[in-house]
Amino acid sequence: MKLLRLSAAGFARSVQATLAFRVNLLFDVGLSIIGMVASLATVFIVYARTDSLAGWTEAETYVLIGTFQVLSSLKSTFIDPNLAWFPDNGIRRGMLDTFMLQPAPTLYLASLGKSTPLSLVQSVLGLGVIAFGLTELPAPAAIVAWLVTLAAALTVTWAMGVLLACLAFWAPRLQLEVFYSSAWQLGGYPTDIYRRPLRLVLTYLLPLTLIATVPTSTLLDGPRVLVLVSTVVGAGVSCSLAVVCWRLGLRRYTGATS
Amino acid sequence: MSRLLLLIALRIRREVLEWSGTWWFLLTLTIQAAVGPLIGMFVWSAVYPADPYVATYYVALLLVTVMTESFEQHTFSEKLYDGTISHDLLRPQPVVVDVIGANLAIRIWMTVMGIPLALLAGVAFGVSLTWVSVVAAVPVLVLGAVLRFCFVFLLSMAAFWTERVHAIAGFGWTLTSLLGGTIAPLAFLPGPLREIGQVLPFYGMLGLPADIVAGRTEGLLSGLAYQAAWITAFAGLAVWLWRAGIRRYTVVGA
Asked: Which of A185, A211, A234, B37 is close enough to B62 for a disulfide, judged by CB 3.0 to 4.6 Å?
């Protein structure tokens, strides 16, 4: 509860800071719209040439793109401002020392302490694209299951970010977050388009299949117990792994500032 | 002219040596640049699994992308923001010498790192190139690289007027991806979009060299003329913007 209050206070402060620069706000909103139009144009261009992309129809792909945009937006809002460049800022420049002196869990401060509310604009646009792609209103159970898989995907995204950041405790010069961001782009397309070795990596090693494809399939085809259970269990396991690795890393950390 | 070339060559040498210490960062830049063409290759290979043009085009595009990447919104605009361009203004050489030097040094490193990636993708997708098309693509690639630099440098000069230069560069990147041939080869775009793409400069930066490598050499001469026309327009605009921007530029401190 304390963390929720802390998050709400931090988020409100970030909103105030964002609204103070209105021209920048308008600029970024415009850019988000352009980015979304470009994503939709991609789908439009592909489906001008084919009726099905790896078994996905045009409408289904719009739902996939929308779901991916919602997740990307949540990642950009709550995860990226904290974990981007963590090895450099957190470990090598000693920002972690400051977190350790504050009366809140270090993992929370380092991975979720800051937010960029402006990135949520992308979520609104993503929801619009999902509504555009849906040919009929999904059943309430499908919507609930979609939200559950979305939450699980976000948890896995956070856990992956933390795990990559944890590597900096052992190898401070290793900056793998950019690779993760690049690999993240692959999650915006049906996983079936990728050939076998890469598809296996995207499913099991970097579970980008879970990121957008599983929530989209759940919304379109309805909930499947096995998928839901494995998604939630996968999120729980990755979350626990991230917490354990963080604690192990912290034990090794010796500080960078005096 | 020869003094200018010598200055650029010296700057490239210095920048190549400086950047050699940050090979990990350069690798991340290369991977980032390669993701767009790789996604395009997977998407269009799923649509046209039997067409060898798709894989050849995208392997060539991957290489063209890493060889022509430009980051003037970082190497130039940041100097405007933190005021360090004042030092460059006091030196007896044009400011653009350092910008070009940094650009070419980064491109050299990215090319070195991008070639194995392109080879890997080429082997995985069974791509075969002909020497004729590769040689024919060299002048188009050179002009494409100049064109892309001019475009990004133009956008970067927006830093004289706004703090949002990274957003403007992002917008330019979106346009380049959409109409330059990354999202889809120009030939695959729907009619009106294809006609717009043929006129705008973005195709000349990425898609045209890749198309020539993929064997579509029929538009080589007209392509060179189209690239040269856009370079002239961008270079003229850059000179005008530089003069207007530098009059506006102020800095505080010693």
From this structure: B37
A19-38 residues touching B, CB cutoff 8 A:
24, 27-28, 31, 34-35, 38
CB neighbour list of residue A26: distance below 8 Å, 6 or more residues apart: none
Say if residues A227 and A214 touch (Cβ distance below 8 Å): yes
Measuring CA to CA, which residue among A216, A229, A243, A225 is closest to residue A62? Answer: A216
Give the per-residue SS3 of chain B.
CHHHHHHHHHHHHHHHHHHHHHHHHHHHHHHHHHHHHHHHHHHHHHHCCCCHHHHHHHHHHHHHHHHHCCCHHHHCHHHHHHCCHHHHHHCCCCCHHHHHHHHHHHHHHHHHHHHHHHHHHHHHCCCCCCHHHHHHHHHHHHHHHHHHHHHHHHHHHHHHCCCCHHHHHHHHHHHHHHHCCCCCCHHHCCHHHHHHHHHCCHHHHCHHHHHHHCCCHHHHHHHHHHHHHHHHHHHHHHHHHHHHHHHHCCCCCC
CB atoms within 10 A of CB B151: 26
DSSP secondary structure letter of residue A102: S
Place of tokens 């380092």: A110
Contact indicator for B182, B176 with CB cutoff of 8 Å:
yes
Tell me the CB-side half-sphere exposure of residue A211, using CA atoms within 13 A: 33
Q: Do B39 and A35 touch (CB under 8 A)?
A: no
Taking residues A200-209, report their average pLDDT: 74
Record the pTM.
0.87
Residue of B nearest to A44 (CA): B190
**Mean pLDDT value of segment B106-120:** 94
What are the structure tokens assigned to A65, written together? 């793109």
A185·B193 Cβ contact <8 A: no
Which tens digit of pLDDT belongs to each residue from B181-208? 999 999 999 888 899 999 999 999 999 9
Beta pairing partners, A56:
A53
Left if phi > 0, otherwise alpha if psi is -120 to 50, otherwise beta: which for B127?
A: beta
Q: Quick one: which of B237, B216, B223 has its CA closest to B141?
A: B223
- Per residue in A68-99, pLDDT (tens digit) is 999 999 999 998 888 877 777 777 777 788 88
Amino acid found at A173: R
| pLDDT value at B220 more than 90 | no
Q: How far apart are CA B134 and CA B121, in angstroms?
A: 17
Nearest of A122, A120, A140 to residue A130 by alpha carbon: A122
**Cβ pair A178:B28 closer than 8 A:** yes
